[in-house]
Amino acid sequence: MRNHLLPICLLLVGCMPGAAPDTASRAAQPAAMSALPPLKTFTTPTPSRPQRSNADIARDFLELAFNLESGRELPVFTRFEQPITIRVTGQAPATLMPDLTKLVYRLNTEAGLRVSLTTSPAANITVQAVTRAQIRRNLPHAACFVVPNIDDISEYRSARRTTKANWGLLRKREKMAVFVPNDASPQEVRDCLHEELAQAIGPLNDLYRLPDSVFNDDNVHTVLTGFDMLILRAYYAPELMNGMTRRQVAQRLPGILARLNPAGEMAQAQRPAPTPRSWINAIQTALGPGAGHGERRAAARRAVGIAQSLGWQDHRRAFAHYAMGRLTAASDPEAAMGHFQAADRFYAASPGTALHRAYVASQLAAHALSQGNGNGALALVNRSIPVAAQHENAALLSTLMLLRAEALEITGRASEAAHVRLDSLGWARYGFGADWAVRAKMREITALNPLKGKRG
How many Å from the N-terminal Cα to the C-terminal Cα in the chain? Predict the structure, then answer.
């Protein structure tokens, strides 16, 4: 399940975790007439290969495959018998089919799966495009979700409390429905496709300890990574089959990973500590829906305290500081900066967190810009823009470019600033959707510029 969450990044937009029910989910604007430059999209994916040891990846695989996000254990391993067919129903936004086609190509070429698109009602997976209101009526905290053994959202309410839609009772996968919003930004629709189809086809769980995966409730990664493709490739290895127990899968995983990821045999195992439910609950209260601001801040403070008491030095410690920074930015900017700087330090010491640091850089650059420090803001965004582009995050990319434009103006490079600002708008249309949302983001960032803020 992809959840609706308090913004993680984009200063000022993004995604973070909410509740974790037993339904897997992740928390599109039609290509209408626009006065803005044409919408831009990413072309060639450039995922990084997984850098962690196969011993760590095997542990990750087992926890992803044999647990739900709620913590509930699954008794046996389940997957589709290939080939897998996918169809689209509902009122799909213009960007859905091109993005889905690219994803299917990646699943075939990078994960080695046999996946194809079809119009047949007998498809294994139905992607139904519905309104956000329809999704919220069924799962209030979800931005999109996946359910077994149905193919229309009208079936969900009657099926969800029955054995029909019970993941724990599945013994093989035959039919799945993925529900995505058709009135969200193109990026949100694409992100939902990546996470929900990955869960429909492969693991259902999310793990906060994973720095390089969409199977993580921090929602930093929005498209399938090299690690994710390795997990899916292993999920459909011929050595595995439906109905296997956790022990049986564990016995075969070392050989599978040695064959699929020989570089992982040489890497040293890190064995990161488990993430306690108390920390997860604190983060979900801080960043999910339903809590008041004071309760959110108290929960974020608990998350930071738990991370400190456990001696964490990894991206989870950084994430707790980031959450605290977001929740104190309006009331205590200096304290928030301390948390953002702490987050950056911990991310910098954790492998595979370049994208995480790009999120933090947007906050640090915004602060530098508000202080009239154009050169400081430029140093932060210039290193982060290529990272956002590599990870196909148009919302973050356009935000960083808009920050760069304002920083260039502060440093007296108005002509260059105008070019960067114009170039950012096509990415902003993909990342934020409607023209009003793009213009609101522009106004928000323009107001940070002390040369303009008082006039804006």
Answer: 39
